[in-house]
Amino acid sequence: MARRQRTLRERRQQRQRSLAAIRKRNAEYASVLADPKSRFKASTTASTSKSSIKSYLQRPTDNFSNIAATLRQAYVNSGIVGRVIDYYQAHPTYNYSIFPVLGNKNYELASNMKQDYIDIAYGLNQLNIPFYAPYFFKETLIEGVAFFYKIEDSTGIGYMKFPGEWCRITNMENGVYRFRLDMSKVKAEVYDALPNELQQAYDTYHGGSISDDDQNWYDRKWYFVSDSGAAFTFDPNSLVNGGVAISPFAAALADSLSLDQAKENIDIKDKLDTVRLIHSKLPTNSDGEPTIPVKTAKIFDEQMRSRLPEGVVAVTSPATLTNVPLKGAGTEGNYETVNNGLEQLFYDLGTSAPLFGSNTTSSNIVKESVKKDSNWVYTNLFPMLENYYNYELTKIKTQSKIPWNIKFIRESNFTLKDDIANYKDQLSYGGSRLDYLAACGFSPIEVVSQLSFEQQVLDIDSLMVVKPTSNTISGKDAQQNAVKGPTINNNPNKGKVGRPETDNPTDDTDRLDDAQ
């Protein structure tokens, strides 16, 4: 009995130590815990019925969670939908630069501005924009609105994502959407994985101490998440649609299911084209009655079925029937239906079919489609991200207290060479060198760290000496640096440079240098 009590006490202590370790990690704040039981996963079931999808789209804001779940399933199951979303996600380079906002006051650009630039650059580097910005973009494309909670410490920043059905957008502050969280849907088993703020909200909700005039709560179950929480959506109407939004690709769901059905019809047709019916006729008398016992006929039928190859079906009956081929029995227009379905699906997704390998009569169609998609990204994604990161920059303290803003470089991975050339051309007319470096892939912290290190520490100009080539030296320099021949030289022109004096030179023809 004593041994049993000691074992229970040890297990209890082990559990308490585990919880203490989890709380310690949460206190450190930057380690986002994994969810092995998928407790933060949306519980809404995706629909596979075309009629259900049409019903959802009739009242999209009331069925936003069903639409989001179905589109997420389509991202996995439908190659077209998945590749188009990946294509949009991979479009922007997510390169960015920063600049001070001088405003209408007379600021002196003192020497401490350099330190301000370094502090802002370091703060943005902690936000890990190249990693999280594509994640924000993809989740917003799929769900229409994505809800994230930022957790951080001195070493870095992470984000915890909440299911859309748990959250609603509440307001917009400086271009950033804030949201509330339904605490009635948060289970006790996820308590230890929550940040401290939400743990306190959970305790308050289950403690029953929420008053009607409490500014942190709505309807006594919706908790207004602090500025650590942010929602991302491309639809400003979410503020008047109950705090929800629909993916811009929602219209493609019905056509995606139609395309899947057309493909299934092709599979059925292919099976019908290869099926053969083998008929075994039972002998009958003048009255049409079988002349052999049914049990005997059954034995013959089973023996024949056991020896038939795949795709051949046996039929035993007294009717007159021999061999019925089913080739062509399926719908002959199935392949055309699939092609039409693909075109319609691409049309709904807003992407050119030739971009994904469809037939085209001009390469300009693909180029113009890429430019069109780039403009959509620049118009919808970048302002949303800039608003969010500009708010995060206000939390970084600088010596001069001058506000700073971030600017995403308007360039695409699919037109990268032309975009970089555009920023390079602007340098000739007084354009920003920082924007040019950002277009080349340098983050602000790399501009300071890498370039300063190369020049001041490595003295890289002394290491990377330009080699003499036709582009770096003149003819006079080449003549001075030319290798002299031996004293006895049978070729009088050996070691000389320049163009020959005549159009038909010989070994002793004089040559012209740059001075001549």
TrEMBL record:
The lineage of its organism: Bacteria, Bacillati, Bacillota, Bacilli, Lactobacillales. Residues 498-516 have a biased composition (Basic and acidic residues). Residues 474-516 are annotated as: Disordered. It comes from the Bacteria. Residues 474-493 have a biased composition (Polar residues). This is Phage portal protein.
